[in-house]
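Hi C.,

You asked whether I'd gotten around to modeling the 390-residue construct. I have! Everything is below, sequence then structure, no commentary in between.
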Amino acid sequence: MADAVIVSAARTPIGRAYKGSLAGVDAFALARVVVGAVLARSGVPTADIDDLVLGESLQGGGVIARHTAVSLGLTGVPGLADNRHCAAGLSALQIAAAGILAGMDRVVVAGGTESLSTMPAARRRGVPGGELEDWMSPSHPGTPDAPAFDMAVTVGENTAREAGLTRRDVDEWAVYSHGRAVASIDSGAFADEIVPVPIAPEGAGAAEFRVDEHPRRGVTLERLSALKPVHPELADATVTAGNAAGLNDAAAAVLVVDADYARAHGLTALARVRSWASAAVEPARTGMAPTVAIPKALGRGGLTVRDIALWEINEAFCAVPLAVSRGLGIRHEILNVNGSGCSLGHPVAATGTRMVVTMLGELRRRGESLGCVSMCAGGGMASALVLELL
């Protein structure tokens, strides 16, 4: 059985939703940018592409992957939409790798795209013949301790309480995250992974968006501690706008191929998809779900926590990486070293692939081999994936 290897990777810069640089760029356009970029960077003949898998979470239920293929002139490439909420972009890569490891596919583009700025709104009739009402599909059957539409409680507050985290703990992590993201931008760490997005018509006044805009400079514990909690009615509330993930727009993609195909076509394999796993817990424990998915993924790769040189655990809320790292014994100095959801932002269906793209670059810069990315996802789910740099 041949390995599934990544030969090309790219992401857009991450914009702030609604008022940021990508507010006028929808998920379809973002997908075209990154898919076009990974294909151009790889040099793989488009006739060899077996499939295109894109995570999409809040875009109305279409198949953006197929739309993207046709838009790029890849009319012979089918498309698949996957939705595992926050982990959709990571699941896209897992689906691609699975097809290759099964011997069914040789070349698959995988990624995720999200535009919260332009996401559609849904309506439905609550009763037959009734009036149309605003509606959103719930991630799980809501309960008082796990509301389906209030992740500040279901994920942020519940995770902090289970792990014994204080408001100061999560605020300190937010300061760390923004500091690492800003330092990564200033050092040029993201330069190679980012593909610019045109944000104005072509011509003399054309402009491009090139740098992540969500990280904030000068974030201090004092400033964060002054923010009001989202739920002040809760005793010892921890979640604020300052220690939660952002609302963002972005897309990311990778090209995954059979290792034999890579060798036969002279392609440089960047990394091997070593192992992965998804898992689930009670919805009220969503933020702790990575503590189940990570050991499962490591075990499938014959690895332990101590074998991993770098980690990123998405900061849906800052309580999540803190709780998971404490629970699994992950050292903080090798965790979220480039920032994560709180600082870089969390473009929902794109985040998982973005984490993989960033992990590839950071492993290379540090001369390390093994990296693990993981995230919780709505409804009590989580996913984790292990990369081995080649």
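If it helps when you're writing up: The longest helix spans residues 167-187.

Thanks,
B.
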